[in-house]
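Subject: design request, 219 residues
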């Protein structure tokens, strides 16, 4: 099992450095007992109420790019304080990363109130995903049925695989924009047809196209 050791103290006072050292020493020994492979040891001196922490983002980046099974902490307040702690725990849970708490001697156990809050957050995110899927569906219906747009006419290598479909389809963007769809609606419509393009990307590519057309017209 791959793990990251995360240690934190609240201030940059010299007296806190010994606490960081103790946390590191205890967690390294514990990781050995649990037979975990430690990929990284992160130490930082920063307030737990603040999410703008270099070590915290370093930890989340490693989790994103590598297979990390667990985070080892001395106690739950090392991850943060108050709402910041819940935000960090939620991100770790979404990433499928277990949290091992030395103080509790195993996986982190939250109190009833904290568990309820995280459950509500998860349900809200689930509903948001459903709403986005519905929005994509509405955008597709509007483009295909109401606006008379058929993206299949312009798709290259239809059903043949390859990378062509992942590229930004400027022809489709222009066609949909000329039919008065918003950038957000265009993004949702194209996502429904397999193009992972954001609203910002749609806007940028359309503006670039306008500049290109202006240069062509001006000779």
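Subject: RE: design request

Done. Sequence follows.
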């Amino acid at each position: 099992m791959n793990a990251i050791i995360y240690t934190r103290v609240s201030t940059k006072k010299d007296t806190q450095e010994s606490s960081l050292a103790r946390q590191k020493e205890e967690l390294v020994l514990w990781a050995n007992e649990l037979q975990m492979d430690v990929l990284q040891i992160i130490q930082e001196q920063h307030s737990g109420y603040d999410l703008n922490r270099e070590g915290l983002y370093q930890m989340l980046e490693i989790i994103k790019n590598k297979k990390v099974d667990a985070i080892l902490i001395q106690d739950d307040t090392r991850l943060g304080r108050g709402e910041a702690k819940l935000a960090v725990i939620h991100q770790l849970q979404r990433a499928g990363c277990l949290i091992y708490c030395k103080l509790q001697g195993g996986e982190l156990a939250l109190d009833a109130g904290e568990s309820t809050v995280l459950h509500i957050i998860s349900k809200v995110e689930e509903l948001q995903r459903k709403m986005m899927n519905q929005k994509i569906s509405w955008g597709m219906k509007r483009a295909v049925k109401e606006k008379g747009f058929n993206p299949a006419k312009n798709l290259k290598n239809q059903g043949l695989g390859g990378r062509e479909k992942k590229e930004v389809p400027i022809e489709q963007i222009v066609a949909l924009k000329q039919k008065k769809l918003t950038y957000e609606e265009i993004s949702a419509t194209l996502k429904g047809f397999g193009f992972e393009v954001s609203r910002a990307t749609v806007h940028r590519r359309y503006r670039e196209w306008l500049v290109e057309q202006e240069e062509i017209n001006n000779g």
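DSSP finds seven helices and five strands in the chain.
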